[in-house]
């Protein structure tokens, strides 16, 4: 083989290698996007199912756009709640949930919201409920929306996606509202409540 033919062959080999490398990177990116979309769909389906368990006659509902990044406001309380699930899910899955809880960050439901949710901006809610006259604020809110709204945390899932924990609160007035965190299990093709972890009532 002549020198120029060897050079041409080496260039062709290099070009093929480069193209294969680019294709491999593209396939990895596509796989990552597909996996992320699947995870987001699982999250949205679960949140909708969990809210439906709160009110199975409700087809649409208002949801605050800010996803709650905790169950209790502090890590120590949340870690104790999660550790208390060892009997149902096992110590290994408790560690898995604790890792997820530790990594939770502030996020919103705007980009992809659960089916049926009508999103209320955090800035809108702050403006609506500013000031000391909470009764009047709620009257203003109901005159527009005719319904209360929910606050929902980012759910935590066990590694096999069989169990999940989420915080859900219903805000409905000055002396009206309830919320808390619960453990759910996916059985017979649907999500079910295993038990409430903690709850509060405003009345």
Task: Report on this structure.
By secondary structure, the chain is of the alpha+beta class. Helices cover 48% and strands 27% of the residues. It is built from six helices and nine strands. The strands form two sheets. Strands 1, 4, 5, 6, 7, 8 and 9 form a seven-stranded mixed β-sheet that branches. A two-stranded antiparallel ribbon has the order 2-3. Strand 7 and strand 8 form a beta hairpin. Helix 2 packs antiparallel against helix 4. The longest helix has 52 residues. The chain is extended, with a radius of gyration of 24 Å. About 4% of the residues have low confidence.
In short:
By secondary structure, the chain is α+β, with helices and mostly antiparallel strands.
What integer value in Å does the Rg equal? 24 Å
Helical residues, percent: 40-55%
Averaged pLDDT, please?
Answer: 84
Total beta strand runs: 9
Can you lay out the helices and strands and say which pair or pack?
Elements: H1 3-54, E1 61-64, E2 66-67, H2 75-83, H3 86-89, H4 91-103, E3 107-108, E4 117-120, H5 122-128, H6 134-145, E5 149-152, E6 156-157, E7 163-173, E8 176-187, E9 190-202
Parallel strand pairs: 1-4, 1-5
Antiparallel strand pairs: 2-3, 5-7, 6-7, 7-8, 8-9
What key attributes describe this structure?
203 residues; two-stranded antiparallel sheet; 48% helix
